[in-house]
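Priority: medium. Attachment 1 of 2:
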């Protein structure tokens, strides 16, 4: 199991559509939190995107999972950057 930092980039012209899909996006994330797949998630305060911390077996598995996000299905994510992350200190270091 690996830990991944996932950055979503949002386009400002999609704010209304994002707001429409936010409840289903958060419900989806909540289910993944309950399963231990999402460790943390939240939007950037400037509204330009969000940071999500996932666990997944492979980066391919992660991409497949992120493609199921209601935000992704609605087309309101402009870009996604995924980076495998090795937390050595703090709340998530027990996962590596």
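Attachment 2 of 2:
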């Amino acid at each position: 199991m690996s830990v991944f930092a996932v950055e979503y980039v949002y386009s400002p012209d999609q704010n209304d559509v994002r707001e429409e899909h936010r409840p289903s996006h958060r419900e989806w994330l909540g289910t993944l939190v309950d399963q231990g797949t999402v460790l943390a998630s939240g939007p950037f305060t400037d509204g330009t995107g969000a940071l999500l911390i996932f666990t997944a077996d492979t980066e391919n598995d992660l991409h497949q999972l992120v493609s199921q996000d209601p935000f992704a299905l609605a087309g309101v994510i402009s870009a996604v950057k995924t980076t495998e992350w090795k937390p050595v200190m703090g709340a998530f270091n027990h996962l590596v």
